[in-house]
Amino acid sequence: MPPTTDLWAAAAPDAWHAALARHDAVIARQDVARLPELDRWYRDELPPAIAGRSPAHLTLPELVRLTEWKMARGVWRAPNLVLVRGNDADAVVATSTDALAKVPHPTAPIAALAKLDGVGPATASAVTAAFAPATYPFFDELVAAQVPDLGKVAWTLGYYARYAAALRGRAEQLGSDWTPVLVERALWAHVGGKTGAVA
């Protein structure tokens, strides 16, 4: 069942808080066996793991698990996961170190991460969102479809830059306790995730 309201048009933070509060329940209703566990790991364990390293970087096992999270939440693309798993472990560390050093540039970290096999703008954005949630939202097409004036989703750096700017702007309007990552999660939960299972 589709949502009955346009969350993007809601100016009051209450509607956004309500949508965000449904996030865990919507995750559970996706009926994907490992998704709740992967989502907890992605939200609670990965960000401090990346930030706790000097310099900040991602490991190959983390990249694989992050890709599994992204696919479990959206569309499972087995060939992409094979490509991600095939990356050289040292190359993942070096590439992600270089990419995260480019934060807060709007697209340079995404472009750098996308040099890894099997990594496109969406997967790259999941890395940057975990590291710098105040700057980079995860790139999700269900979320992008709710943002006026973005047009049809295109998996390009230019589209991501406009998407991220829109979510940053909305986070600023909602107040200091909001980040682009929280805006993305609220919008995703609002439409019920990929199953459309709205509370």
Present the secondary structure layout.
Blueprint: H1 13-21, H2 23-29, H3 35-51, H4 60-73, H5 78-85, H6 89-100, H7 108-113, H8 121-131, H9 141-144, H10 157-174, H11 180-190
Structural descriptors:
199 residues, mainly alpha, 59% helix
Q: Could you characterize what this model shows?
A:
With 199 residues, the protein is an all-alpha fold. It has one domain (7-195). The chain has eleven helices and no strands. Helix 3 (35-51) packs antiparallel against helix 4 (60-73), helix 4 crosses helix 8 (121-131) and helix 10 (157-174) crosses helix 11 (180-190). The mean pLDDT is 94.
Outline of this structure?
With 199 residues, the chain is mostly helical. It contains 11 helices and no strands.
Q: Fraction of residues in helices?
A: 55-70%
The low-pLDDT segments are: none
Provide the residue-averaged pLDDT: 94
**SS strand fraction:** under 5%
Beta strands, count:
0
Rg from Cα: 16 Å
What is the domain total for the residues? 1
Number of helices: 11
Q: Based on CA inertia axes, which overall geometry fits?
A: globular
Give me the secondary-structure category. Answer: mainly alpha
State the end-to-end distance: 9 Å
Main sheet attributes: strand count, strand direction, barrel closure: none
Taken in chain order, the helices and strands follow as HHHHHHHHHHH
